Amino acid sequence: FPYTTLFRSKKAGIFPIVHGVRSLALARRILATGTGERIEALVADGTLDANLGQELLQGLHFLMGLRLQAGLAELQLKREVTGNVNPQRLSTLERDLLKDALSAVKRFKAFLHQRFRWVREHLVKQMVRHLLGVQGGEQAIEQAHFNQMTVGDDQRFTPLFARHQLDHIAD
């Protein structure tokens, strides 16, 4: 990360951890309400690897601590409280811990992307089939399915591709 700009700990780390863990917990029907409890439950049911769960929890606590310290420093200087962290003011150890925390967040985001990829693609397909069914009947659905199959293995069924299908069939 660039050392010359302020670091948004909430956007870069806290938000992805909290909401990613919440999404996984909802998908697994876990009733825990705190992020720490959710991580423990996701590790216990095998959804999350124990090491990643521990790294996420430690990273979350570290990032929240940095944000709190930055906010308190802003209050002391009578500035607007943003909680943004100036990496130049961090010690070498804190910068190393920040890199570790962000590395865990990056791996977690990749895990989430892979985990929810099928769900996302399935929902888009269902939405397009529903829209095509409403607009053009079964023939349109069959045409969309045929077009999807002939795009090729390297083309994913994305919302943009779905929009292309709608435009193509409407012509």
What's this entry about, in short?
The protein has 5 helices and no strands.
Give a description of the structure.
The protein has helices at about 10-25, 35-45, 50-75, 90-150, 160-170. Helix 1 (about 10-25) packs antiparallel against helix 3 and helix 1 crosses helix 4. The chain has about 170 residues and is mainly alpha-helical. The model is unreliable at about 145-170 (pLDDT under 50). The longest helix has about 60 residues, at about 90-150.
Count of individual beta strands: 0
Low-confidence regions: 144-171
Strand residue percentage? under 5%
What percent of residues adopt helix (DSSP H or I)? Answer: over 70%
Run of helices and strands? HHHHH
- Per DSSP, the total helix count is 5
Mean pLDDT across all amino acids: 78
Shape descriptor reads globular
* Separation of the first and last Cα atoms: 47 Å
Task: Let me know the largest β-sheet.
Answer: none
State Rg. 22 Å
Structural class: mainly alpha
Considering the chains and any ligands shown, give keywords for the structure:
171 residues, mainly alpha, globular, disordered C terminus
Write the layout of secondary structure elements.
Blueprint: H1 9-27, H2 35-44, H3 50-76, H4 92-150, H5 159-170
